[in-house]
Amino acid sequence: MSSYRYRFVGYEKLPSALNADDVQLHCRLPDRLVQEIRDSNYARRYHLALAVQLSFVSLTGRNPDSKLAMPRAMLHLLCDQLGLHSTAIASLKPIYFNAERTLANHRAWVRERLDFTAYGEDAQNRLEAALAQQAIDATSVQELFNAAERWLFDNRIVLPGKRHLEDLARSAYRVVEELALATIRAAVTPVRLRALLKVMLEESVTPGMSVLEWLKQSAGKHGVKGLKEVNSRIDALKALGVHLWDLDGLSIGRIHAFAQAVVNRPPSETARRADDTRSVEIVCFLKHLLGELSDEAIFRNNRHTSDIVRSGTKRVQAKQAQRAYEYRCSIESMRDIAIDQTMGAEERLAAIATLAEDMLGRPPVSHAEVVRETLTEQTSRVRNVLNGMTSLDLQADPAHQDSKLLAALQTLHACGAKELPVDFDTSLVDSKWRPLLEVPDRAAALRAFEGCALLRIRKGLLGGSLYVNHSATYKSKESLLIPQEEWARDKEALCEAYGLELDPKRALELQYELLRAGLADLEVALEKGLLEIDDDGSVRLPAIRAMDEEPELRRTNQFLSESIGTTQLPDIILEIDSRTQISTTLLGRQPETAQELVALYAGLLAHGTEIDAKAAASMIPGVPVSHVSAAMRMLEAPGRLREANDKVVAFQQRFPIVNLWSDGSKASSDMMALDATRHLSIARTDPRRKTAAAGIYTHILGSYPVIFDQPIVLMTRQDAPAVHGIDAYNSKGEDRIKVDLLAVDTHGYTYAGMSVAKLLKFDLCPQLAGLPDCKIWTPRAIKVPELLEKVAIPSITEKAIREGWDQAMRLMASIRSGRVSVAWALARHGSAAAGDDVRRCLDQYGRLLRSVFLCDYFTNDAFRREIHTLLNRGESVHQLQRAIYYGRITAERGRRRDELKSISGAHALLTNMVICWNTMKLQETVDRLKAGGQRIEDAVLRRIGPVHFGHINFRGLMSFSVDRYASVLLRAPSSSKRARTG
Length: 982
What we know:
Layout: H1 2-5, H2 20-27, H3 31-39, H4 47-60, H5 72-82, H6 100-114, H7 121-134, H8 141-154, H9 162-187, H10 190-200, H11 211-216, H12 224-239, H13 252-263, H14 267-271, H15 275-338, H16 345-360, H17 367-377, H18 379-388, E1 395-396, H19 401-414, H20 434-437, H21 442-463, E2 466-467, H22 477-480, H23 484-498, H24 504-527, E3 532-533, E4 539-540, H25 551-564, E5 567-568, H26 569-580, H27 582-587, H28 594-608, H29 613-619, H30 625-634, H31 640-653, H32 658-661, E6 666-676, E7 684-685, E8 692-701, E9 706-712, H33 719-730, E10 741-745, H34 751-759, E11 763-767, E12 776-779, E13 792-796, H35 798-816, H36 822-827, H37 837-859, H38 861-884, E14 888-889, H39 897-931, H40 938-941, E15 952-953, H41 966-969, H42 975-981
Parallel strand pairs: 5-15, 6-10, 6-14, 10-11, 12-13
Antiparallel strand pairs: 1-2, 3-4, 6-8, 7-8, 8-9
Helix pairs in contact: 2-5, 3-4, 4-5, 4-6, 7-8, 8-9, 9-15, 12-15, 13-15, 15-16, 15-17, 15-18, 15-21, 17-21, 18-21, 19-21, 23-35, 24-37, 25-39, 26-39, 28-29, 28-30, 28-39, 29-30, 31-39, 33-34, 34-37, 35-37, 38-39
């Protein structure tokens, strides 16, 4: 995998403590190169030198210095490959002593064999162009420097000196900074900019706190007070004119990077920055903050609306209970009348009939009607939410009905209306609301209109008919998708480039063919008795029988666990880091001291477990709390935790035993609830454990590692994070195996989600709740066998697919080109977008895809078992994750989106490190046993996973033995530095 082959790129020397496995993996030459060395015209005494150079250049991309010391294990391996006696030399110096020309000739020979070219003016020009492009989103000079090394390595160009690359990286980064400064000066006048920087240091509405500190604070828990805090910050930013700044010349990633610099340092340090740097960072921080706060305000407004609707649901239950009580009382009254001998028979029958008519004449308790009544009656709660939306500058698509409703609401609020005008146009609201708006009490009618508007605004924001331009997520669709003019002009080329089918007829014919074959297989299976369909149209499948318990499996598992032995979490972290260099990835450079490395580990533990910075410093002697806090802020840098996770996963995938578990093309995804304080705005009550919790949604390969993670809100549909995670994984790394099947539960799929997944070249396979009642949707063009008519619903509208296909392909091309994310696309085309052509197209196409899937699921027992196995492996990983993070997210944590992502990413990284370490030890133990003549069947190993954790101590005092791995993990001091210290 790509993330692992970059392990030593740019190194000027290889670690002297490389173990035998690393040497075998990285330093062994292909047989072709060994034979070319032997066949070369160079004297035999140069063969080892040629082998060293070939191995070093292929690993690092650099020419080895003639005085550079080589790892002993590397020299021994190369001697074995060449058939030479084990050498005693430690470097190339004895071989090339006073032979500079020979060394130059050998370097040219090595470059030719490896298809490398020397670094020259042409390579420099190409590199500068590449760096100029990558600098648009780079967060630091070090990131650009690392990108330069990888670019040269990928293009098979020998790396020049580090100082030269650092100069190029600084130059490219400076150009973008100058562009940012020019963009900012064009958006904000110099006078305004100076006033802005001055305002940031003034005292805020909170005594003793500067405006910058006040803006950096996170809002409190869910409630009216917290919503007001968010709105007050939005109003303050708009008063500064932030919503009017045009920073389109800067990428979102660059703005985020500048903003993160302000977030991660004290305001006093920001104040000491140079004026130009401070101007760029402050303006980007304010622009980014406005988008984040706008999203937060919308999120809280929608949640408050949901709370009001939920209170109506509780009233439904109360009314239903009251109605049941009234029914019981009525029946008792009828019984009393029936046995009352003081009344005549006809009189008693008349009384019973009167009671019956009274009860039967009452309308049923309607859930929607009670919710509408609740929204009308809870005036203060509704108006609190509506008033909070005034900060958002809501806008609507002029062609949509919501635009007229929004304009009417704004007009009524602007004039301070207390009643709804008699001549108000009630066609603006849904027909169910109109009776509430046509009542004589016009004040009540206004309350009803406000309640209707509140629901429509929430639905409009979620569906995309309403938008907020200064929001980060809820912008208008047209501003984010490929422009319509560009799409009309280039859609054929774009679809060909992204592998999209522009003709809906071809796409439908392919699925129709699969559906016909699936229905035929289903008919055959029904005739053979492999499944049943009852009179109600429910499908009855035989239960998947659990595999018999095998004593050999239990004995082997126990024996392997005992052979591996017990260990401590710090030892796992150090060993995996020594194999993957994740500390270099997380820091953006190699750690320089042991204290810096241990502080990084402490920050990782503080994010990825339930402990905080203070507790981490107490558990790890010698690490100050300030260093842990700094490491935690550094880990919030975008992409670093994800890249570190990719490295660990890539390392785990190289072990042969992994191929017994999965080939890497299948995965599962599910949410795990992390306990959290109820003061966290993202927290919801977990329906299982009845405690407040935040969701962590993870994607898990069939071979157990976590390949993607993201924080989500509990009790929400999970199709967007499910599809988004696989798309993010598949789109990175050209040489990794792509996931083509994702198993999810019922919460993880929708019809639109299945459509988007299929168009992204993988299958979304749900394990459905209520499976017997699932019907097979078919188009009328498909003839359904008579035996299957009870489970088939011929209601798929091909017309809806054809009419929305063009714009659906525009949406998919926008996803593939990086304009929008999969999560955004599915969120804006969910149930809230009912009536939208693209949404109807994706929904109908997804019904067709689900029918094809169900035909396979009903008839293929192996396929059904595979889906269950993938999901069960995901659950076993969740058990390990709970062992690592067994506490809860405290009130001081997780209030910012970046911090939540860091908690999720660090937790996934620790989980992957344990899985990777277990895999490595399993492989070592199995290899040792097989070498000793003991036979272990692959069928047994296939059922022994790497997620056991009873042998690992996750708690207590932690000691990191960095000295054992210092030569691998820590950067060696330069010669000039050694001379100064000496």
